[in-house]
Amino acid sequence: MDLGAGLRKALAKITGAAIVDEKAVAELVKELQRVLISNDVNVKLVFELSKKIQERALKEKPAGGIGAREHVVKVVYDELVALMGEKHEPKLNKQKILLLGLFGSGKTTTTAKLAKFYRDRGLSVGLICCDTYRPAAYEQVEQLAAKTGVPFYGIRGESDVKKIVKGGLEHFKEKDVVIVDSSGRDAFDGELSKELKDITDTLRPDEKFLIVSADIGQIAKKEAEEFNKVVDVTGVVVTKMDGSGKGGGALSSVAASGAKVAFIGTGEKLDDFEVFDAKKFVGRLLGFPDLEALLEKVKNAGIEEEVKAEKILEEELTIESFYEQLKATKKLGPLKSIFQMMGMVDVPKELMEQSEEKLKRYEVIISSMTKNERKDVDLVRKNRGRMERIAKGSGTSVEDVRDLIAQFEKMKKFLDAFKKNRGLRRQVERFMKGGAGKLG
Ligand SMILES: Nc1nc2c(ncn2[C@@H]2O[C@H](COP(=O)(O)OP(=O)(O)OP(=O)(O)O)[C@@H](O)[C@H]2O)c(=O)[nH]1
Ligand SMILES: [Mg+2]
């Protein structure tokens, strides 16, 4: 089970409990422990967290008129945020950035992601390949730079890192942000240590980002400490958060080492990258809506009129509104991330994978339905004759019509369940906006 699903299941022990007493809190804590430890969070950290949650949940008075359940939810949220770290505020000025880390941790990929990140924020960027160790490193950075549309500097076959850095700095002296990719090793050793010293002496980087893969879980602490001794690391980028069952372990152990998580990598594509913000991260795991991010996306896409989150939640879903909402939502980006921002995290997988083709098919099918059929899909579902008529009229098959109805019903069922839970969500959101700093 992924971390988010596990944490939500644990929280359900409280939100679904008849009364919030010692026993209910104990059950919640036990479930939390299980989930966090299976995500490779250090056992000691887990026990400290449990103790704090237990104490605060039972002894602290709920603030500002919230109920006992919301109080416990807030305590869990607060303590998870404290466990995972802080919030990074990337500087957007002229700067030099060095990326370092062991083999395959994602340095080169992150070089390109960072280049895009700063460029999208209006800064001019140059990339330097200073990996003199891996045979095809030069070509890899060159290709990634071309893909990102960012200029690249390197000296093919050169093994003196100082020479490369000097050349690169001269070449990019007009650029706002200069990003340097360095070589990895199997383990931290004297050779790597010397190489990094040579690079930092010449480059004088403002940021030294250590790249670690989420796969290593709590070992991230040891790694951060080792690298820190040689080049004091200014931030850690945790990559491969998407595929790892140890992301929580990696983040919490970086926080425990005293280093700061700056960014996280969430996939192989250049956009699968975000500034780390523990509150946002935990809020999303727990299924709180990230309304700020959603509004930003809606605004950027210029479709404020079409996406009405309120409408989705307030009005009865019909097959027409189902289609309209899917269509509008799809304009914003991958359905999965959009649903997530709305706080709808456990949406059935099928529903999130609506292709353009499928949406077109839905449109023609719906246009072949009568007004009454659109209002009440049962008329179609229970009547083979109507199904055949609609299929014929829309140039599709009975199977296609059935598929649309099945998807619609799944969504309806999901939304109904989501709405039921909404009273609680609202209270928690309102409270967090006022109390524990703004959520999201
Ligand atoms: N799923 C996923 N894959 C990633 C992510 N970041 C990097 N990768 C993949 O991890 C592999 C290694 O990435 P690189 O960027 O080449 O790693 P590196 O640290 O430069 O490796 P060396 O130069 O050999 O030390 C590649 O296949 C990347 O596509 C991520 O956030 N998610
Ligand atoms: Mg590399």
What does this structure look like?
This protein is of the alpha/beta class and 440 residues long. It has three domains: 3-84, Four Helix Bundle (Hemerythrin (Met), subunit A) (Up-down Bundle), CATH 1.20.120; 95-281, 3-Layer(aba) Sandwich (Rossmann fold); 291-434, 434 Repressor (Amino-terminal Domain) (Orthogonal Bundle), CATH 1.10.260. The chain contains 22 helices and eight strands. An eight-stranded mixed sheet has the order 3-2-4-1-5-6-7-8, with helices on both faces. Helix 6 links the parallel strand 2 and strand 3 (152-153). Helix 3 (43-59) runs antiparallel to helix 4 (68-84). The longest helix is centred in the last third of the chain and has 23 residues, at 398-420. The chain is flat, with a radius of gyration of 25 Å. Mean pLDDT is 87; it is low at 434-440. Magnesium ion (MG) is lined by residues 107-108, 131, 137, 181.
